[in-house]
Design a protein that fits this description.
Among the domains are: 189 residues, Dna Ligase, domain 1; 95 residues, 2-Layer Sandwich (D-amino Acid Aminotransferase, Chain A, domain 1), CATH 3.30.470.20; 132 residues, 3-Layer(bba) Sandwich (Glucose Oxidase, domain 1). 46% of the residues lie in helices and 17% in strands. It is built from 36 helices and 29 strands. It binds phosphoenolpyruvate (PEP) and magnesium ion. It comes from Lacimonas salitolerans. Its EC number is 2.7.9.1.
Length: 825
């Protein structure tokens, strides 16, 4: 018997029997047998019933390959009929016997005869009157008497369960959960342990760990005079398992059975190599084990259970690593909506940054700051965000935007800050001027209304949903330590500020793989300086701004080097897309006019002159660096002066400098010549020697194709897959949100390519560039620093392509470390 022929439940029961647990007699029907039943070929009922005593009551339960593929509900008490009722009344009393018979008639009517549940579910008066009512209702509805032959009853139950599995709805449901089209169903026929009648009788479930935390704790329910999983359905009436000051417990009622139950559940854990929940029945004081199922668990519990199983020597460490789905770490590192909570979903957008938070809606960054000042939680709602909103993002507990995709401004910044964020929520109608949002069902939301943003699944909920807190703990640290021992691809973080860098270190990133230097100027007092730099159109103006920028940048870099303590820090030269950095409204123009001491009209004119039709493909990155070389000169100087300064205190720092948006070899040559010259000048002025490594970001298809001629001029290539995806598809990062869900729903794209690396297209460019680059320069270091760097699938791709490391937002570093380890075990 195997899981693949009889299903998980049958296999588990077979093992429990071999462990000599008190499992009632059981017969398992294979997938093939059940499939035959569905097509009308019944097994020989007489020989099936021979396994059980003539007077035994039976139950039938489903046994599929994976428990979460679903399956028909269990049917209990098969074999109840008028004769049995009379006998059972003598044994356990009329009321209990009537209750057993009634339950069976109800289940049979609803699940086998498929009668209207309303006619059966609510009839109940207890005892013989209730029984008479359901039997009468059955006869009314079917115009037949209730079947009395146990063989007929069992055959009908088997047939209805087999057919239910083959029905279209059930098939679609399980296929959505990953089941193959031909997934089979096994059925388990088991003798009933009654759980009702004289002496201590009842049923329940027990597990030895807490499903939420994974900590050892006896958890479960026991309900006297009950069957199946009633103890779970009627929680309030159930008793505690272990001694509890709040009320009576199973332990006090039947101490020996309770001790056996604990011991047996522990044995299941050891032998089945998994934390199990036991389903049990007590019949007149005697314990029966009906089933064992894998304990349901949160991400936090999954980690602790896997680590504890390995520490107890039950599974090897490698297996513990494989048992934790990397993405569940996201759950642990952020607050989440309580999975058990009811969700009032207003609309769904793109899940851009995980975690959840609730607060009052605000429509401007200034309002967000005002709320934060009053200590009130707020959610910043914007069409899209720009650097002007950064202050508001810092002040808000979550961000919601109408536009944008996985790599839009709000998404990238939100992830960097660990701020829950939903973008591209275009199902809402945004009325920016009226400061109102309208949900698809017509509900209107205004400033001050409370919503919950769930950045883990993209949902926006009405009101404040109940949350569970982030829970980083010792078990996670242990697991991550094991991951780092086996992993063979590096994991760095994208970090722009000292705060990011500290987070990166806390999550044990092996350095910074991308420091977006223009992001260092998002703070209110600095944004204007950055704008002045972009804005300056005469050499003296520019020189004056750069002189102010130099000390700021130098101080930034010194701090980053200090925090990273000798780990590599890869600094990207400025890449400010103009639409993100130029002021877009009158207030912004006025602020800039004041800063520059110019008439407003001059500023407005110049902003218009600088405007681009397609700023993502305009004067960005190295194009700005070549056109206005003093800018990169200033940055190179700041990096080298910081290098000298930081190296005085400790280990020599070897900075990495990266050129963005390259598309031609000559761009690299030009920048390299100037950076080398600045390095020479700083060496001269300070009298200190240092080295540095110059690298190129591959973000345009042309750079990927021409990697062979670029490689000799560069120590490393880092793939900026955000822009590379944008340019390979010709798909705007900022506008893709509008139609992405339609595209994915209609199967044009299997998934959002800004979220999941397009291995076929963008991936081919990566492979071409890696091969051509390494052919030209075998020691070329290869890495990825686009948002894909943190996703398990992309990490697998990069590792297979021989990359040295991946770099991702600091909060995704643990996920990346675990995903990388799973590839190596
Ligand atoms: C990229 O394009 O992948 C990248 C890392 O740079 P940015 O997101 O800053 O454009
Ligand atoms: Mg880029």
């Amino acid at each position: 018997m195997s899981v693949a022929t009889h299903g998980g439940r049958a296999k588990c029961l077979q093992r429990l029997v071999r462990m000599e647990m008190p499992v009632p007699r059981t017969v398992a029907l294979s997938f093939d047998a059940v499939h035959r039943v569905a097509s009308g070929v019944m097994p020989d009922m007489t020989s099936l019933l021979v396994h059980f005593g003539a007077t035994a009551l039976l139950c039938v339960r489903p046994s599929s390959e994976e428990p979460d593929w679903g399956g028909p509900g269990a049917v209990l008490n098969i074999g109840m009929n008028d004769t049995h009722y009379a006998d059972l009344s003598d044994q356990i009393g009329r009321a209990a016997a009537a209750s057993v018979y009634t339950r069976f008639v109800q289940a049979y009517a609803i699940h086998v005869a498929r009668l209207d549940p309303d006619a059966f579910e609510h009839v109940i008066e207890d005892g013989p009157e209730g029984l008479a009512q359901v039997l009468h209702a059955y006869e009314e509805e079917t115009e037949e008497t209730f079947p009395q032959d146990p063989a007929v009853q069992l055959a009908e139950v088997l047939r209805s369960m087999a057919r239910a599995w083959e029905g279209t709805t059930a098939r679609l449901l399980r296929q959505a959960k990953g089941a193959p089209a031909d997934a089979g169903l096994g059925l388990v026929v088991q003798e009933m342990a009654l759980g009702m009648g004289h002496g201590e009788s009842g049923s329940g479930v027990i597990q030895l760990v807490d499903s939420r935390t994974g900590q050892p704790r006896i958890i479960g329910r026991y309900l006297r005079q009950s069957q199946g999983r009633e103890a779970l359905d009627r929680r309030e009436e159930a008793l505690f398992l272990a001694r509890d000051p709040r009320g009576p417990s199973l332990e006090e009622l039947v101490p020996e059975a309770f001790a056996d139950l604990k011991r047996m559940t522990g044995q299941m854990r050891a032998k089945l190599r998994e934390e199990m929940q036991a389903e049990f029945t007590i019949e007149n004081g005697v314990l029966h084990i009906l089933d064992g199922v894998r304990v349901a668990r949160s991400g936090q519990a999954a980690v602790r259970i896997a680590v504890q199983l390995a520490e107890d020597g039950i599974i090897p460490r490698d297996e513990a690593l494989l048992r934790v789905e990397p993405r569940v770490l996201n759950e642990m590192l952020h607050r989440q909506v309580d999975p058990g909570a009811k969700r009032d979903v207003l609309a769904t957008g793109i899940a851009a940054s995980p975690g959840a938070a609730a607060g009052k809606i605000v429509f401007t960054a200034a309002d967000a700051q005002a709320h934060a000042a009053r200590g009130e939680a707020c959610v910043l709602v914007r069409r899209e965000t720009s650097p002007e909103d950064i202050r508001g993002m810092h002040a808000a507990v979550a961000v919601l935007t109408e536009r944008g995709g996985m790599t839009s401004h709000a998404a990238v910044i939100g992830r960097g800050m660990g701020l829950p964020c939903v973008v591209g929520a275009s199902d809402f109608r945004f009325h920016a001027r009226r400061q109102m949002l309208v949900a698809p069902d017509g509900r209107e939301l205004r400033a001050g209304d409370v919503i919950t943003v769930d950045g883990t699944n993209g949902q926006v909920l009405a009101g404040e949903a109940p949350m569970i807190e982030a829970a980083e703990d010792d078990a996670l640290n242990t697991l991550m330590g094991w991951a780092d021992e086996v992993r063979d691809i590096g994991v760095r973080a994208n970090a722009d500020t000292p705060g990011d860098a500290q987070t990166a270190r806390n999550f044990k990133a092996q350095g910074i793989g991308l420091c977006r230097t223009e992001h260092m100027f998002f703070d209110a007092d600095r944004l204007t300086v950055m704008r002045e730099m972009i804005f300056a159109d005469t050499s003296p103006d520019r020189a004056a701004v750069l002189e102010r920028l130099l000390p700021m940048q130098r101080a930034d870099f010194i701090e980053l080097f200090r925090i990273m303590q000798g780990q590599p820090v890869c600094i990207r030269l400025f890449d400010p897309p103009l639409h993100e950095f130029l002021p877009s409204d009158r207030a912004g123009h006025r602020e800039l006019a004041e800063a520059l001491d110019l008439p407003l009209s001059d500023v407005t004119r110049r902003v218009e002159a600088l405007g681009e039709y397609n700023p993502m493909l305009g004067m960005r990155g190295v194009r700005l660096g070549i056109t206005v070389p003093e800018i990169y000169d200033m940055q190179a100087r700041a990096i080298f002066e910081a290098t000298v300064e930081a190296s005085r205190e400790g280990e020599p720092v070897v900075p990495e400098i990266m050129i963005p948006l390259v598309s031609a070899r000559r761009e690299v040559e030009l920048v390299k010549t100037r950076v080398d010259a600045v390095a020479a000048a700083v060496r001269n002025e300070t009298g200190r020697d240092f080295t540095y490594r110059l690298g190129v970001m591959v973000e345009t298809p042309r750079a990927a194709l021409r990697a062979g001629e670029i490689a000799p001029h560069t120590a490393f290539l880092s793939f900026g897959t955000n822009d590379l995806t944008q340019m390979t598809y010709g798909l705007s990062r900022d506008d893709a949100g509008r139609f992405m869900s339609t595209y994915v729903q209609q199967g044009v794209f299997p998934e959002d390519p800004f979220h999941t690396l397009d291995q076929d297209g963008v991936g081919e460019l990566l492979t071409i560039a890696a091969t051509r680059g390494r052919d030209a320069r075998p020691d070329l270091v290869l890495s990825i620093c686009g948002e894909h760097g943190g996703s398990p699938e992309s990490i697998a791709f990069c590792r297979a392509a021989g990359f040295d490391y991946v770099s991702c937002s600091p909060f995704r570093v643990p996920v990346a470390r675990l995903a990388a380890a799973q590839l190596a075990v």
